[in-house]
Write a structure and sequence with these properties.
The protein has 60 residues and is mainly beta.
Amino acid sequence: MNLGTVISKKEQKNIQGGFGCQPQLLQCDSNRDCPPCSSGCGITIDLNGEPFFISGVCAF
């Protein structure tokens, strides 16, 4: 019985299998809710040259 296929490290990296995080947004209440590869709970975006902080979201 064949349950899967072994893929090379290069293929894993191309699909980010075990390397880094998939880009996404997650709802959060604190930094503990976010994965280590994110910058923590809350993101700052550039809004016409001014920083704009959005709480409750971790992005990575």
